[in-house]
Please model this.
Amino acid sequence: MATSESCSMFLGRGSLFSGFGGRAGSKHGVSSFAVVDTARRARFVLNLSCKMRQKNISSKSRRQPAKKGRRNPSSLRDETRNAEGSTKVQNSPDDHSSSAHSENSYSPIIPASDAINVDSEGFEQSSSLGREMVIQQAPNEEQLQGFAIGDLTGMIRNAEKNILLLNKARISALENLDKILVEKDDLQAEIRRLETELANTGLQPEFPADKKDIVHNTETEISARKSSLEIDSYQRSLDSDFPSLGEEIGLLREENRSLKEEIEKLKIKLKDGTPTDVEIRLATNVGFSGMGSVIFDSNVGNKGSERKDIEEQMGNTLDTAAKQANNATIILQKNEELQKKFQKLESTLMEENDFRTSLESARRENELLQQKVENLEERLRISDQEIDDQVELYHASVKEFEDALDILKEEGRKRATQVVPDNMPLKFWSQLLLTIEGWFLEKKITIDDAKLLRDMARKKDGKIRDAYIACKEKNDQEAVTILRSLITPLKSPGLHIVHIAAEMAPVAKVGGLGDVVTGLSKALQKKGHLVEIILPKYDCMNHDVISDMKELDVTVNSYFDGQQFENKIWIGIVEGLPVYFIEPCHPWKFFWRGKYYGEHDDFKRFSFFSRAALELLLQSGKKPDIIHCHDWQTSFVPPLYWDIYSSLGLNSARICFTCHNFEYQGASPASELGSCGLDVHQLLRPDRMQDNSSHDRINPVKGAIVYSNIVTTVSPTYAQEVRTAEGGRGLHETLNFHSKKFFGILNGIDTDAWNPATDVFLDHQYSADDLHGKADNKAALRQLLNLSSENSTQPLVCCITRLVPQKGVHLIRHAIYRTLELGGQFILLGSSPVPHIQREFEEISNHFRDHLHARLILTFDDALSHAIFAASDMFVIPSIFEPCGLTQMIAMRYGSVPIARRTGGLNDSVFDVDDKAIPDDMKNGFTFLVPDEKGLSGAMERSFNLYLENPEVWRELVQKNMRTDFSWDASSSQYEELYEKAVMRAQSNS
Ligand code: ADP
Model:
């Protein structure tokens, strides 16, 4: 490794070396030079000098750009002469101010080509070099003639001294060169050692990278640094920092080597041989050049070109040495830079090692921590697993226990039931028999039931054994029900129910009664009961809806006004139900009146029919479980049944009476009652059939309430209302007295008959899922009735009703006008049994005959009613009271939103959209409480508002209403329950 001391020493020598030409002497001297054999030596030196110059030129051209100018030997010479003071300085070659033709001028600048000389051995100076050189010509013989001999002798002596000094200087220069070469070798060795050390350090190429970067880099980077690739990369990086160093060293080595050889040769020459004349001239010339003296060799005075070559060779040698010294300086500087970089690398390496060490320890700590976490996790997992196992074990044992318990229970039950009945202890059968007899004596079961159960016990039937075991912990009533269920199939598959009614839809329908009879009968039939209907054979009834109608070849005689009258019996199927039509053969032709009601003798007509119906049952030998009569027209049945027919053998049935409207009670003078065979005196009593208001009148509805086993009305709210003085129409006390058998059951609708998806009366069937048909029906109806079809979204308000005061006719009228005011259309389908009401509405109808937005059809038209329900958007039911009302339910089924007064059955089926007390899923319409125009208008306006302002919500409301179950399913079950309980009571009482 080069030290700073050696560098400074080297530099110092370089300085000395560069000023060599100006110094008077050197410690290296040459003992003597004999001027002999000058021609031979001159040739040799010239030859050698040219070779050296060629080498120097070639190496110079390789290492550095050629210098435009070079130090002119004549300038050195001039300086030397000035210093000696012995010779007047002649014109400098570059001094253009002096005349080139001056007397003392001997060194004109001549073209290089003119200066080319060829010696005897054919040596030729490079013309290119010659062009750059300033050739100093020696003085010719003519010039020399001016000098004195003494002067010449002195000059020679001086020259000899100079030669001696020059030789010393040359030897010194050569020795210095040797030292330089040695130091260069040392430096090269140092460089190699550094390279080796660098290679051995394993440092990474990236340094000296910023430590922050190293910190940011992870272990991956550290390990990656170890790779040989990165070492290579570093090496490349190093090479890129010193791209010419190796090359430079190699060149220097090469030069040094050749220089050495040359120097060695020179040394040998200098030592071994006496300097030739040429050598002396060379030395003189060099000496002159170096000290500014002008030396002339008398022997070689005529060989000026040869002397110039020697001088040039010497100058070149010195230049080469100077350049080498410069190169060595550059190398030294590079070495210094390299050393600095190496030191920096070393410190970075140390930092990195420290960092790596700390990183390693951190990593080890991290690994330890991770190991601990993993251990903890593993322990946690194991403990979780243990808990899971324990829980699973627990569940398994619980399940095992439960299974075992179930098995034990099942085995116990099997053991009890698998015991062959005969093997049951006698004590068991005795207990069962005693239980049955006890129930019979306590009248909890009928004699027939007791007989059937007794037979089963006597036969040791397995079913009664199991049922009796199951009854062990039940009370008597539950046990009776269970045991009777065993014998019910033996008796009958279901109840035998006979409806006796004045209406049945669609064959004979005036109002809701007809719908209820059909709807309830069909629902009960579906439940497996035997349902039959007995109707008057009206001349005006809809025969088209009766299938297989025929007159039976039998007549039924019935009593009336003290006589027996024949009745023709017709049978037929209506809506799948078996129907008996009674055609009285009475001269008054009770049902040949062209209408259902409204005859002056309605009391007689329907009391006749009631008796004839019971006669039919009696004479046919039927044993119905339930005789269900409806409204005042058939309210004679209950007293007739109990007062006359039960004693005649028609005693199997229990009587159910349904009042569809307490407005109609059929009260008549008491004397009228006798026509059907009832005892007026017995019945004209407050607790029987005497009208509560008119004591001389018979009230058939009151009689039905008193004589029936079950009394119902058509909605829970109405049932409550009629128990009040205001709502009961004089029967509230009677109803309250018989409240235990009085029930309010909301009517359903016949969802088969009222189904927009299958309705044959409609032009377009539709459903909640697809409402397009509804709009089409609306358009069709508008066209049919000549209403404006301009605005398809114009709301259509409809009303289908009997035009009677109960229905709020004044409000219906108001609804027509209010609808028009609100921008809607109105259609009324109705007829009135009340003449003045009929007339009033006929006037209104005429008023709107050609109106584009209102139409009144004052008739009964079942088909048209279907079309209106389908077309309407809103349905008005402003009833003053309403036992049930069906139109609101039919309307909803057809997607028309009801606007109804909150009364009776309307209150049980229409729930206001804006009433916060009502659950959302129940809201279906608009209601008002006070039965006046204001109340109705308010509800209508709210309805219009929703329809017009929020059609999407309206549509959802319509769809929800259409999907609501208004069928008889739920209602018929309530009737069924009432029937069964009544029958059970009857059986237990018999
Ligand atoms: P009520 O029984 O008091 O007459 P409901 O609402 O219980 O009233 O039942 C009326 C039934 O009669 C509904 O089915 C309705 O469609 C029908 N209806 C009423 N008037 C007419 C009419 N003019 N044309 C056709 N059907 C009518």
Remarks:
- Residues 511-512, 515, 800-802, 829-831, 860-862, 865, 884-887 surround adenosine-5'-diphosphate (CB under 6 Å).
- The first helix runs from residue 4 to 18.
